Amino acid sequence: MDDADGLHRFPMKRRGFVMSSLITGLTLATARADTPAIHTDATGLVAKEVQIPVSDGHLPGYAARPAGVGPFPIVLVIEEIFGVHEYIKDVCRRLAHLGYYAVAPELYARLADLSKMTDPRQIIGDVISKAPDATVMSDLDATTAWAGDTRGDLSRLAVIGFCRGGRDTWLYAEHNPTLKAAVAFYGPVNTPDTPIQPHSPLDLAGQLKCPLLGLYGGQDVSIAESDLRVAQDKARAAGQVVDLVVYPDAPHGFHADYRPSYRKVDAEAAWTRAIAWLRTHAVT
């Protein structure tokens, strides 16, 4: 159902968004879900950990693509605050089975080994808040270039991000004019401005450079629906395509199958929309 404010809600049950802190939406993030996490095998793929050249050395990452010569359409996969762990790697393999070259750089590797951290407050305070946005954008540019040099097709480039990676997806879509499409799974659009993170996605929404799909949970207390609406309006006023979808009963992290927040029906519906968005906008 389409609302007058331009946001879609599926199904239409209750109002949804409430403003709170990002921490609230992540306190259960590292606990196990009740059902087994999805495991996508690598049959027919080239899937492995990689080292990505960046301005000051190399970042570890994970890449998965179909076996074969290519070139393949590139999808940058931006991690949650918990790093490039098995869930993010599995997302890369899911994309690779659909014909994409999916690459997930470990954007916070300079600051910490996130695989050894589980407290969201500590991660955000000691790592996430200390990562300059300019460095994140530069690293994503470097990842794009590396993918283009290793059987990726730079003319078919997209980005998809989860949690904090949803915020960075907005920012990268506001930064890189060569992107064809972007998909943000939740993630805040209105974050505090700091000297090293000087602009939120909301601030820069009028500079969006590609069509963007945003997928949000109505029970996600970390994001205000009003912020989403303003970001969408600013981007559309600048002539860009933005589609924001709210799943009313879904919490933060509803796509993350290793968390208690996982909601299978909404996760599958959102994933179907995400892939359709890439294909609609020539990333196929």
**The level-1 CATH class:** Alpha Beta
**In which order are the strands of the major sheet placed?**
1-9-8-7-6-4-5-3-2
CATH topology name, in short, is Rossmann fold
Please give the largest β-sheet: 9 strands, mixed
- CATH superfamily membership: Alpha/Beta hydrolase fold, catalytic domain
Helix content: 25-40%
Q: In total, how many domains does the architecture comprise?
A: 1
Based on CA atoms alone, the radius of gyration comes out at: 17 Å
Residue runs with pLDDT of under 50 for 5 or more positions = 12-30
Distance between the termini: 28 Å
Count of DSSP helices? 6
Strand content: 15-25%
* Counted beta strands: 9
Mean pLDDT: 90
Q: What structural class results from the helix and strand content?
A: alpha/beta
- Order of helical and strand elements: EEEEHEHHEHEEHEH
Q: Which CATH-level-2 architecture?
A: 3-Layer(aba) Sandwich
Task: Give a structural overview.
- There is one protein chain.
- With 284 residues, the chain is of the alpha/beta class.
- It has one domain (8-35, 68-79, 109-280): Alpha/Beta hydrolase fold, catalytic domain (Rossmann fold), CATH 3.40.50.1820.
- 27% of the residues lie in helices and 22% in strands.
- The chain has helices at 86-97, 120-126, 133-149, 164-173, 225-237, 264-280, and strands at 8-9, 45-54, 57-66, 72-78, 101-105, 152-162, 181-185, 212-217, 242-247.
- The longest helix has 17 residues, at 133-149.
- It is globular.
List keywords for this structure.
single chain; 284 residues; alpha/beta; Rossmann fold; nine-stranded mixed β-sheet; 6 helices; 9 strands
